[in-house]
Structures are given as structure tokens and as C-alpha cells.
Amino acid sequence: MEYIAVIGGGIAGMETAAQLKALGLEPVLIERTEALGGHVASWHCLFPDLSPADKLIKDLKSRLEGVEIQLGTEVASLNPLRKGYSLVLSNGKVYPCRAIVFATGFTQFPAERKEEYGYGIYDHVITNHDLEGWFNGNGDSRVPEAPKAIGFVHCVGSRDIKAGNSQCSKVCCITAIKQAIEMKERFPKAEVYCFYMDLRLFGKKYEDFYIRAQRDCNIHFIRGRVSEVAETIDGRVQVKAEDTLSGRPVRVPLDLLVLMAGIVCNPDNKKLSDAVSMPLDDDGFFHSWNNVVDITRSDRPGVFLAGACTGAKTVPEALAEARSAALNVYQYLKGSK
Amino acid sequence: MDFGFRLSPSSAVDLDKVNLALYDRLAELDPGIRTCIGCGSCSATCTSSAYSGMSVRKVLLALQRGRMQDVEKMLSNCMLCGKCTMVCPRGINTRRLILNACRLYDNVEEEV
């Protein structure tokens, strides 16, 4: 039997595999970890409707019936054949494949690399990812019981040439607003601050969500990038920024600081792209055949790209691209018969 | 004669008439300065800012709006510690920018 390899079991990979199956093809879904769902599976709820992430994952899983899934294994080698590719997994399984879909996603920017923000150094500094874990009921001693002031730092490791990532991570502005609203609802008496450089709220319903944060939740938006964070003598965290709109430095002590760690490339992309002699973009994401006409097509025949492996994506974008990639595979096989 | 009122000069920035000589010369020496997004990291971390009003962000803006007096005043308060260079997300060499601006300031004034 000839397979379509879908590499990466996050939401893009799951959706691609489900669509390929529905189109009558034979996908094999490969996931490095022991569970499907990727980053979204560790999230609590999703912007802009606060819909639960686990429901999305459950729905996606339910549509994978009959799809061959390989968990806890990675690509050991990928060799081009005359027609298609030979895929060898680290668990020893070999699949002859007519086409490949990379859905390798992204990695979260390691916030500890921005040492000036004190992640891993100060007691009450966490990331967006940590906060979702806390929303999910995983205890976190860094989150105080009754915080009076909470801050969100946008663009941590995004649009930051020195941190090696010049791209905008796209989802952090709206994620910060979502998490700020959720914190305000849990702690109505707390003051919540968002420190931003530019607010990029481009998606469907995002602007409404922003208005809700301003009007209904009274969240304070300060236009200034945090330059450094220090711990005060009573163990709080003090943020230093410029309020660029008033042109004055601001300092505010907080009980909890949340760093919106951005989206950077999956370092494994290099190995995979080398295997099929395909270029990567200089930011380490996969290179699309055309960034306007079709992001999900690569320069290599029979190799397609879905989701955040080509750059930061929202959930609906990743899902739409997964469907597009599946359709591309279908058309490609039809054309090459 | 006192009319009981007076006319205030317009505070509008006339972009058409702004003298960009110094800014353009500085951008020639380091095109990176054109990439500033005005995030304020430099001013927030500046050791002098809170006391003197020095701000690299404001210097760059004043240069582009032709407010040379503001530029001169701010630059004279810089201690050249270089912290602003460390925090700039765009990787602009702000310390070099300040030195270049000080070096060129008088020359450009004469040229214009």
C-alpha cells in the first residue's frame, strides 16, 4: 500500500490526516510525543470565543478513525525514490509514501533567554504557556493566591532581532488580551496591565475582544516595551518601561508577570528539509512555493506544508491550511497518475 | 497696541519644510536607525532619562521632525553608558548614533 506521510500530530497534522482519509487516501500520522494535539492540547481555552481547547482536540481525534497513527516515534530517514519517498521511523517501521505533508509546527521561544525579564530567576514570572497550565488546574506556586496587580509583556522573543527572531508571532497580542480578561474575571479587584509595542488584532472578532478588555474589564494598555524587570524587597516584580504616549518612564510593582513568549521555528525542520533537498526560509520555517498563491505547496513535487511550520499561525489558519494541503495532495496524485 | 487677544503660532509639524539633513546623514552612516519602532526600551532603561528627559526614541523622532533644539538638549544629557544599545530589539547601535549625532551636529547646522 502507498501512504501519504503526515509528519507532526498537532492540530494541522490531525486535520490534514482526517481530510486525506475522507478523500479516500491512506495517511500515516507521525507524532514524536506520546499524544496527539501539539501545543493546543496544553492550552485551556481559545481566542476569541473562549472555546475549550480540549473539545477541539477531542473533535479532531474523533475524525481520525481508520487513520494509521504512529506515536512516540520520529522520522529516522526520508529518502526520495523515483516516485515518492521512503520513510523510515525511529521505531523501525518503513512506509513507502507517494507524498509527504510536513506539519511540524513551531517551538515556543525560550523565555529564559531574555534574561532581563527574569523568567526562571524571579519567583512570580511565568509564560503564557505556564498560565494556560494553571488555568487547566495544574498548580503553580508562582501564581499568588490573591494578586493585586498583574502584568503581561507582549513580544517576548518576537520582533526581536537580537533574540534571533525578527518575525511577529501574530497570536500573542490576542492571547494576552484573552489571558488578561480571564485573569480579571478570576481576580476582579486586580489591576491588569498589558505592555505592548504595537497591538496587532487582525483576526475575525479580535477587535471586539479588545474592546471588551478595555471597556468591560478595564485592562490598562501601556504602549511601551518592558526593558527590564527587577524583584523588589517584598518579593514582587517591578517592571520598567517607557509609557511612550506620555513620554515618561513608568515603573509598576506586580504580583505576577506573564511573558508572552513568541513563536519560533521547529529546529527539526532543518533535518527534514535537508532530507528532501528543500530550502528553508532564513527564519528557519519551511519555504513555501508562493507566499500569496499557495503557502501549503513547497518547491518539491509531492511535498506539502500545513500549519505553523511555515510561520506563526492562529488555530483557524492552521486548520484551513491543513485542508488546503490535503486537497493539494489529492490533486497532485490525480495529476501524476 | 493691545487688542485683548493675540495669535499663537501654529504648532503643526510641516513635514514639507522639515530639515532632515542630520537625520539623513546619520542614516547614511547607519541605515539601521531607520528601523526604529518607537517601543521605548531605550528610554525605559536609560539611567539619565527619568532625571534629564534624555531619550533615544525622542531624539530619533525629533531628528525626523526637525526639532533640533530638543535634540541638542537631550544629547547633552547622555552619559554614554550604552544600556540603550543593549535593550534595543531592532539591534540599533544607539550609542554610536549618539556619538555620530554629537560629532555631526555643528557641521550640519553650518551646511544648512
Task: Tag the structure with descriptive keywords.
heterodimer, A: about 325 residues, alpha/beta, FAD/NAD(P)-binding domain, 2 domains, 5-stranded parallel β-sheet, about 25% strand, elongated, B: about 110 residues, mainly alpha, Fumarate Reductase Iron-sulfur Protein, Chain B, domain 2, 7 helices
Give a structural overview.
The complex is a heterodimer of chains A (337) and B (112). In chain A, 26% of the residues lie in helices and 27% in strands. By secondary structure, chain A is an alpha/beta fold. Chain A folds into two domains: 3-105 and 266-335, FAD/NAD(P)-binding domain; 109-263, 3-Layer(bba) Sandwich (FAD/NAD(P)-binding domain). In chain A, the strands form five sheets. In chain A, strands 1, 2, 5, 6, 7, 8 and 19 form a seven-stranded mixed β-sheet that branches. By secondary structure, chain B is mainly alpha-helical. The longest helix of chain B has 18 residues, at 94-111. The interface between A and B is medium-sized, with 23 and 20 residues.
Main β-sheet of chain B, in a few words? none
The CATH architecture of chain B would be Orthogonal Bundle
The rough form of chain B would be described as globular
Number of strands of chain A: 19
Tally of separate helices of chain A: 8
Counted up, domains of chain B total 1
CATH superfamily of the largest domain in chain A: FAD/NAD(P)-binding domain
The helix/strand order of chain B is HHHHHHH
- Large-scale geometry of chain A: elongated
Structural class category of chain A: alpha/beta
- The CATH topology annotation of the largest domain in chain A reads as FAD/NAD(P)-binding domain
Q: Report the top-level CATH class of the largest domain in chain A.
A: Alpha Beta
How would you spell out the order of helices and strands of chain A?
A: EHEHEEHEEEEEEHEHEHEEEEEEHEH
Strand content of chain B: under 5%
CATH class of chain B: Mainly Alpha
Q: Would you tell me the structural class of the helices and strands of chain B?
A: mainly alpha
- Mean pLDDT, all residues of chain B: 90
